[in-house]
Amino acid sequence: MPITAQHVRETVDAYLAENSDEKDSLSALAETLGQVGDTIASRKEFRGHVTAGAALLRPDGRVLTIEHRALRKWLLPGGHVEDSDATLVDAALRELAEETGISPDQVEPDSGLPLHVDVHTIPANPDKGEPEHLHFDFRYLFRTTADTVELQEEEVTAYSWQFADMLTAEPLRSRVLASARMQ
Predict the structure, then answer these.
(1) pLDDT in tens, 15-31
(2) Are 69 and 157 contacting, i.e. CB atoms less than 8 angstroms apart?
(3) What is the band of 111 on the pLDDT scale with cuts at 50, 70, 90?
(4) How far apart are CA 57 and CA 145, in angstroms?
(5) What per-residue string of b and e applies to 22-37 under the rule 16 or more CB within 10 Å gives b?
(6) Which residues pair with 49 in a beta bridge?
(7) What is the pLDDT of residue 6?
(8) Rounded distance, CA 29 to CA 37, Å?
(9) Phi/psi at 44 (nearest 5 deg)?
(10) For labelling alongside 130, which of 12, 123, 143, 163 has CA 20 to 30 A away?
(11) Where are the beta strands (DSSP E) in 24-100?
(12) pTM surpassing 0.85?
C-alpha cells in the first residue's frame, strides 16, 4: 500500500513533537501536504513530494555517503518512495539496499522517527520533463557493522565511509555526531 498523506502527517507531527524549533523550516511541507493530499508520495507531484534517506552509522563513527550520478553530489543513500513502500522508514531501507547492496537484515533502525527532515529544491530536468520542485526528505538513522558495499551503478558512481563530522548539513551533522557518541 502506498504511503499516505495521513502517514506523512503523523510522521511530521511526531518529529515536530521532538523538534518543535523546526516548525517554520517545515512550513512548505505542511502547506504542500494540505494542498496535494495523498499525491505527496508521487514523484510526479511537482509542487513537492516526499523522499526518504538513510544515515547509516558504523560503530567507528563513520557514515556512508554516496556520489549521486545525476546530481554529481555526495549524499546519503536515498530517493523517491514507491507504491510498495508502506512507510517512510521502509522507503529509506529499500533505497539503502538498492543503492548500496546493504540489505535490511544488516542494519538496525535507531528509532521510528526521522533523524532529520530536510526541504530542498531539485533543479529542473528537461530530459525527464521535470520542472524545478521540492523534495521533503525524511532521513532516518540506521546502525550497521557491515562495510561491504555493492553500488547500483545506474544511479551511484562511488561511496565513502566518512566521519560524521564531515557532514556539512545542520542539524543532520550534529544529530549524527550525537548518535555516534551514544554507541
Answers:
(1) 999 999 999 999 999 99
(2) yes
(3) confident
(4) 8
(5) beeebeebeebbeebe
(6) 135
(7) 97
(8) 11
(9) -95, 0
(10) 12
(11) 49-57, 62-68, 73-75, 78-80
(12) yes
* Alpha-carbon gap, residue 48 to 122, rounded angstroms: 9
Q: Let me know if 84 is exposed, middle or buried by CB neighbors in 10 A (0-12, 13-18, 19+).
A: exposed
Dihedral through CA 48, CA 87, CA 179, CA 173, nearest 10? -10
How far apart CA 45 and CA 151 sit, in angstroms, is 28
DSSP-based three-state secondary structure for 51: strand
DSSP 86-148: SSHHHHHHHHHHHHH---GGGEEES-SS-SEEEEEEEPPBGGGTB-SEEEEEEEEEEEE----
**Residue 63, pLDDT above cutoff 80:** yes
Rounded mean pLDDT, 121-133 = 93
User: Which residues, 6+ apart, have CB-to-CB distance to 176 below 8 Å?
Assistant: 55, 57, 63, 115, 141, 164, 167
Question: How many Cβ atoms sit within 10 Å of the Cβ of residue 61?
Answer: 17
Q: pLDDT tens, 29-62?
A: 999 999 999 999 999 999 999 999 999 999 999 9
